[in-house]
Amino acid sequence: MASTGRASRVGGTIRTKTAATVAGGALLVTGAVGAGVWWTTRAPQLQVVQRNTQVVVDPGGRQSTVAGCAAGETALGGGYAIDGAAYATTSEFLGSTAWLAAAYNPGSTSVTLTAYAVCVNAPVEFAPRGEYTRHAYAFRDRFIDKDRAADDGTIDDLTTHGPWVGFSRAYLGTDTCIPGYTMTGMEFRAGRAVAGQPVAPVPLEHLAPPTAPAATPEWTAALDAGTELSPHPHLLRTSDAAERQTRIEDPQPPQANYDIGVRAICAKLKNVSLVSDRVSVPAGGSAELTVHCPRGTFAVGGGFRFSPLAADGTSPQRYLADGLLYASADGPPPGPSGRPLRDWHLTGRNQETAGLQYVDSVWIEHSSREELTGNGYFDSHARGADDQLLRGSTVPPAQQLTGSALCATVDGEPTRPGAAPTTSLPHPDLPPVLDLPPTTTTTTGPTPSPSPSIAPSPSPRPSSSSSRPPSPSPSASTSPSAQPQPQPPAVSIVQPSANGTLRRGCQEDFTATARTRPGDRPLTDPQSTLWQLTGPNGPTTLGSGLTGHFTVPLLPDGTYRLTFTATDPTNGLTTHTEIPIHITGCLR
């Protein structure tokens, strides 16, 4: 029977005082002369809908949730939305019936993560999916990398030796579909670039479909840059091309060790089109963008891309200190689960500060405008009154976010309405990549417990600073040429005291000591130190430096572990110390 919406009469006539009820797909007419049966059965309508689930992500924590399709539906893809300044770390397909999203919350207030599954009530043909082999790395250097500090002009930094070789330019994750299939989206999964190195997450800078999907069936994914330039001056033989020179920090911050694996979702669809729109995201703020699909098509996926522009129209390389640009929402518009999906919604967030200069601005120290010679350094401001700026990049008042919606129709027979959404869904464990302290066998302090449980001990664990170095062997002590062996730093927490009290939501003072062994020199570089507080959802980073004024996370009353970690940059050895600390409410 064609689904024309008309009712066909079978016997009898209809009068004004007629009672009608629907039973078994037929209109039963009663209470009238010549009552009969009017068939009203419609064929199922093909629909693409969104189905969602939600979970709360506590401050400093990470959570995941899985959205599943109803029985008889097929998952085309998915997305996520976070109602605050947090960002997704994993977004992936679970077979063809569900979608998983995970988010990290670096803020001080709880946020809600919504995972969306894009579901269609028809069978869809997918291309075989491979492994997560195409990675996007947060570690990134400028495209032109020159360092003329050496007489022969060779480069000598983290991009030419050590564990970061090869990462500086491999920052784009890409994947493609075989001919005949449309890429409806790209999965990504959080990971660690270099084993044994500390790691912390950064958001995606873009997860973007191509401008012409038929001609370029390739999406790209990139993380917000995780590398930082060295703040230390270094000698320039000449000022020529100084703005293209670079010197990378060693050791790198843990954000630089973050990466994601990507994988394409390829399906056979019809009438595929790509619709894009833009919104200006103000510095220090956020902006919403909804992209609408053409009439008669459904939204089956989407993505975003930030397009930062300098005053001269070029795209400057951004680093962590310049603020993060990301989309905390990349999925269907908010609404009840099961709603037809014809639009794609994005929330762009801009954590930069307008008017400041990027930290990769290049300066010449103690120079004149006529003679640009001396020590060059990278910073956002001059160190001395006579320093000259060779390249300055000012943070603009807003950044452009481009949002895209992939629109299509599905060629297939719709299935009959099924049962409620599946309640038994797969929920794989998340990889432990967030806010972990350095892991090394040379640590002399106590090993942190992998459990996020609260420490109930009333007395502090012994500090690694009290650990005595091993006694030298007789041969070493008697040899006149023997040199002291490198050891992890000696560290201690001065403030707060063990079993002291911190007030959640308030800013408290923190002080520690960290000195090299041998040498007994203080470690003054903040990047060599890390403060963490371990709560029910694992460790939360408070800040870095020997002293600091940090905000205490919003944790329930109880006893927790406060950990201070230090790394000697000359030998790479790491140690830490920890004390129990009590948290109570903040009296303002």
Strand and helix layout:
Blueprint: E1 8-10, E2 19-23, E3 26-30, E4 37-39, E5 48-57, E6 62-68, E7 74-82, E8 87-94, E9 98-104, E10 111-120, E11 134-137, E12 173-176, E13 182-192, E14 204-208, E15 218-223, E16 234-236, E17 258-267, E18 270-282, E19 286-292, E20 298-307, E21 325-331, E22 339-340, E23 343-350, E24 362-365, E25 374-378, E26 388-391, E27 398-409, H1 474-478, E28 487-495, E29 501-503, E30 507-517, E31 529-535, E32 538-543, E33 547-551, E34 558-567, E35 574-584
Parallel strand pairs: 29-35
Antiparallel strand pairs: 1-4, 2-3, 3-4, 5-10, 5-22, 6-9, 7-10, 7-21, 8-9, 11-17, 12-15, 13-17, 14-15, 14-20, 16-25, 18-27, 19-23, 20-27, 21-23, 24-25, 24-26, 28-30, 30-33, 31-32, 31-34, 34-35
Protein name: Ig-like domain-containing protein
Organism: Kitasatospora paracochleata
Biased composition (Low complexity): 436-446, 462-482
Describe the structure.
The radius of gyration is 30 Å and the shape is globular. A seven-stranded antiparallel sheet has the order 19-23-21-7-10-5-22, with no helix packed on it. It has a six-stranded antiparallel sheet with strand order 12-15-14-20-27-18, with no helix packed on it. It has a five-stranded mixed sheet with strand order 29-35-34-31-32, with no helix packed on it. A hairpin with a 2-residue loop joins strand 2 and strand 3. It has three domains: 8-39, no CATH class; 48-409, no CATH class; 440-467 and 486-588, Immunoglobulins (Immunoglobulin-like), CATH 2.60.40.10. Helix content is 1%, strand content 41%. It has one helix at residues 474-478; strands at residues 8-10, 19-23, 26-30, 37-39, 48-57, 62-68, 74-82, 87-94, 98-104, 111-120, 134-137, 173-176, 182-192, 204-208, 218-223, 234-236, 258-267, 270-282, 286-292, 298-307, 325-331, 339-340, 343-350, 362-365, 374-378, 388-391, 398-409, 487-495, 501-503, 507-517, 529-535, 538-543, 547-551, 558-567, 574-584. The longest helix is centred in the last third of the chain and has 5 residues, at 474-478. It has 588 residues and is mostly beta strands.
